[in-house]
Task: structure prediction
Amino acid sequence: MTSEDVKKKDKAKKAADPRDLTVDVATQDMIARSRDMEIETIFDRAQTMKPCNIGVQGTCCKNCAQGPCRLPLPKSGIEGEDTRKGLCGATAETIAARNFARMVAAGAAAHSDHGRGVAETFLAAARKETEDYKIRDTKKLLEVAPDFGVEIFVEGENGEQVDRDIDEIALEVAEKALAQWGQQEGEICTLKRAPEPRYELWKKLGVVPRGIDREIVEIMHRTHIGVDQDYENLTEQCTRAALADGWGGSMIATDLQDILFGCPYPLKSSANLGILKEDHVNIIIHGHEPLLSEMIVQAAELPEMVEMAKSKGAKGIQLGGICCTANEILMRHGVPLAGNFLQQELAIVTGAVEAMVVDVQCIMENIANVADCFHTKIITTNPRAKIASGHTTHIEFDEHTAFADAKRIVQEAIDNFPNREKDVMIPNQKSELIAGFSYEAINYHLGGTFRGSYTPLNDNIINGRIRGIGGVVGCNNARTLHDDGHLTVVKELIKNDVIVLTTGCNAITCGKAGLLTPESAAVYCGPGLAEVCETVGIPPVLHMGSCVDNSRILMAATEVVKAGGLGNDISDLPAAGSAPEWMSEKAISIGHYFVTSGVYTVFGVTLPVGGAPVFENYLYNELEEIYGGMWDMVADPYEHARKMIAHIDKKRKALGIDKARERVLLDMADRQKLEDAA
Result:
């Protein structure tokens, strides 16, 4: 045995069992295959590279060249006055608050810049500068236009109200929407969609955002050395930027995408790596923006493209998605989900992927290195997101030539099909799912075409069949057991009659595990929630879209408030938020706009504030007195879910609806009454 063989044997011994890294069987199989092929993935790097202890605590400052200044907690904890300071005198609270604020700024910038790109494309469509994008959902356009201060009626010759030209409305909405990024004064116009008491609270506290870009830039200014050194003041600016994201950039992105591509309604699909097909050209669409992926879906369905694939020896073209681009094309077209964040390298390891087309956010640089071991082409499409490693192709998206660009991308993948060299190994695992629950779809599903209403949901929360609402969202994190936190939290919630609204990688995890079907309610839910799901015909976990679509959860919460009987503000609702496996800065921005919208929000894994106990207490306790919502961090998923349920019960008690409901066996007549009421 050579020395190299010994090293390989030792490395194999040290490698963790795939079952200790993920609960997803398809992922386990692909980790094992990658190791057999000596291809390094994020699961390997997570074993060999440990996180920085001080960075995890949030008290490492590198905002100037005198640092990094590292302020670890004393092993015995803080006893008496905390004397830790950086070179400039910044305390642990200031450093942690600055770091937290910069995460909010980066997360808000990522989601809101996505929204800006959508707004620019929407403007091009409204100006008729592109043939590839058109206004598809005029109903939603007319619904959101007044929020932007756009009139949908004009005065006729005889003084009567006449419908305004739809093209004029679209153009004015586009201009008003795009202006939300650059405006320097006033306020984000979509903020008034929140319940009135919530909006008035923001005004009273002085945290109403002026413009999306302005609030993000101001965080970067305040966190420069020698500027803002008050953690409470820094948190106020975090709030402005986060609200500008959640009730501004992200919400506008969702609205305009719905108008351009159609508002999602329930449809069937499937999830996990088993959706790939050995005898097809497989194209993975990965990232977060649907602008180009919408065109790729259309291009892949062209008869000429299908015939081209057949001419290369394939039986057809199979599209699959990863991360939130996956959720976007799932919600509107039923394109199956190949996997979530931690599965992106492993999709390539199947050997079956001709092209992985990426746009922005959550794209690992290492996919290019993994692709170099196979025939897979990595195609970057956005000027903000190129990859220096490996061999990549850049085909830049332009809204004016989007369909032509998409056809070129699909053709590149087809031409690559004959170049497969290694054996293909596609896992068998895939699960059926139902997705597409926009807040409008929930309204329709509960009440029908002519009487759409959230009242049936409220009634079942009031009578106790449904205990409350859990919003469970967020990424995967290689520092924890892949998918386990997501599934444990969600299963514990629905077992206790808490209906779950989900987006992003949590939604993909739930899809892979079979939780996005109505049939799953009988298996996993408590009796009350199971009864409602059976009667209405919905899953206990409602897939509401991509992570930018967390704004749909905000609007669903607002609709619940409007329906009545559960308080006057979001903070009154028996509801809680969760990100069990978060890892990106976007999650911090999302978490903060939920907290400041009045939602108790629990993160798993870690939260980088533990090294600053005063600031930590401010987030975990004092914010509730200000906003009615607060942060929490619970790594254990069972305890995580327990604390969410305890909060929901606290809110039920405050509303006076905490009395236990007598369970009765319903006959067919009773069930018919329930259906009529729904």
